[in-house]
TrEMBL record:
UniProt-listed GO biological process terms: gamma-aminobutyric acid signaling pathway
Cellular component GO terms held in the UniProt record: G protein-coupled receptor heterodimeric complex
Naturally occurring in which organism (per UniProt): Skeletonema marinoi
Domain of life: Eukaryota
Signal sequence annotation: 1-16
GO terms, molecular function: G protein-coupled GABA receptor activity
Record domain G-protein coupled receptors family 3 profile: where: 448-641
Protein name: GABA-B receptor-like protein
UniProt membrane topology term: Multi-pass membrane protein
Keywords: G-protein coupled receptor, Glycoprotein, Membrane, Receptor, Signal, Transducer, Transmembrane, Transmembrane helix
Subcellular location: Membrane
Membrane-spanning ranges: 378-400, 412-431, 451-471, 498-517, 552-575, 587-609, 615-637
Amino acid sequence: MIPVLLFFLLVAATTAQTTSTNSSKSPPDILFIVPDRSTPYPNGLHNGILTSAYNYDADYSVEVIDYGNYDQAKSFAVLNAAIDTPTEQQPKVYCIWPMDVESKRLAGKLFETHRVPIVQINQLPDDWELDHLVGYAGPKDAERAGNAGIMMGDAMKERGVENAKVIALGYPASYGGYPLSIEAFRNSIDPSIDIVKEIPLAPPDLRQSAYIEIVNLIDNNMEFNGLYAMDDAILLGAYEALNDRGRVYVKGGNDGPDAVTLVGTVCNGARELLENGKQYGTTIQAPFLEATLAFDQAMEYIETGKLNETIRFTPNPIARGDSWDGMVVDFLGKAYAADSLCTWNQYHERINGLMDTFDTQNACDWVDCLFIPEGLFIAGYAMVGINYLLILVGSILLFIHRKKKIILLAQPFFLSLILLGSAVDTTSIIFMSRDSRNYTRRELDNGCAAFVWLLTLGQMLTTATLVAKIYRVKRVTSQMRPGATNIAKKTKVTTKDVAGFIVGGLLIDIVILAVWFGTAPFKWTTQVTSQDFNGIILQAVGQCSSEGSNAWVYPMVIVILHLLLLVYANVLAYQTRAFHIISDSKMAAVCVFNSIQLLNIATIIVAMSGDNVSIAYIIKACYAFLNNFGVIALMILPKLYQCYYNKGDDGHSRLATTVVQPSHQAGYISGLGNVSHIDRATLCNNRASVSDSEANASPPPSRRPTESDIPEENEVE
């Protein structure tokens, strides 16, 4: 127990000693409450405070408390702590840089609570502050803005621009110096110059806000020849946006009518712009001198109890690109090189840019984008031309030879639908051959929608027509299979009987597409592929896509549906293989198998292509081209070829008899012999029919076929 008691007594004694030491510590004579050194401008202020304290002969104590890099919460905490400090522990003078209006109110509360005089730094005092605070040390906003207006007028005269249009970018509207600066700029600028837009920027990142504002102005085709920024740091954001579009004016370099002359103030940007002629001019503003002036006012008040001048400004002279390096500024009896007073960086380092593709109408105007080579688009149009030529020639020849027996047997209505579906499908290549280089956002969105609808419905029309065509023959020949015990009755299957495949397939696709576009529209989007450590987009790619995590479900359902239909078409072709002369099952099987392969390969490669839009385009265009080219080449061109060379009616003179086969020879068609061994010409001249009454009858006498033996265009019996 005794050691524990001794420990607590020791702790209590130490605490009492510490408290006594703290309470006896003398408060500083001058207390600065300012931002920290993390940015150039406040860093210059800190240097001025230290230099002034060192150079002043009197033995006064100085303390600096910072509130971070313009951290509002820390600013409030520091000011509230000062308010809570007992009056006897208060300094003789406060020198405060209030970061915003709320901080100003706390500074006012500090004065009312303890009546300690306050010298306000940098931020212009309002009416209440002018009546209560002891002094102000900082730049004169109206003077520097007026000098900027003078420089803008001179710059436009040197360029020879008449009736120039100028943009003004400023601090947030809540900043007290904003209205003073804008008014001074208006009053000093040449009357012939039109200020077309005055923009107070949104905090906290004014430089990035300036970049986005210029992006919006250019996107909206705003015409302007000059730009004034209340701060060179703000000007850097605007410069980066203009430079991205090649619109920064440089005398003897980029001096076209669309080039923009840059005029700033405060000299806290990049000296390189002045050196290279990319910035016409700025004004000298020195936080070092602000600290020197505030310290001088504080010492004057401590020594005399008053100030002869409560409002004192630091100088803001004009510095043009061709004169800044030789400038000297006189202040408080000393001469300073202008370059040493400015807080600019020697070189420009980009830290602003497009960070979100939604900040502009077309991100590819501002960042590097991956585009499909123009040569591939030309190849795509060539594919369209080839298929269009085949479809046009095929349609004309199909109409001319529509009464030929080979065409009638092949069912010209279905052949016409195949050509129509191929035309619709092929047209999708035109709409997928677009990007933001030549089309607006709205045109690209419409193109994305047209591409999907045309490709989907065109393929469905072609595939469903093939299915309907083969299924119709299957229905007719369903009771003529080898191994059947009877010969089937005459069967009549019209086009309407199988139209459900076509109409139903199209309706299902339309419903899926409607739900897809209603919930996750397939439209043009620009996706980021690369960013730097600041979040600036370095590279992007534009392509058609849908937003939403489940958007992939809709195209996958369409692919599966079409794949199942193709497989069913292949099954039908196999089932009617014994009657391939009627059903074209051999050619249909090859055609459908080709489509299945193309669909599977295209789906897999496009899914794996990622951001490589060139590969994705090649695969999609080749799929649309080859799929339709194959259908036309296999299902239509061979028939038209025979008709073109007058072979569409061959075999009419070589057929002399109609033979009725017995029931044990199932798989035969009356008058044609074994289906698997007769030629197409023989088939073109005979009606594929059989009846129960003929099943066991003796062969009738031969007769010459008539026109009634040829199937009608829209029916197969």
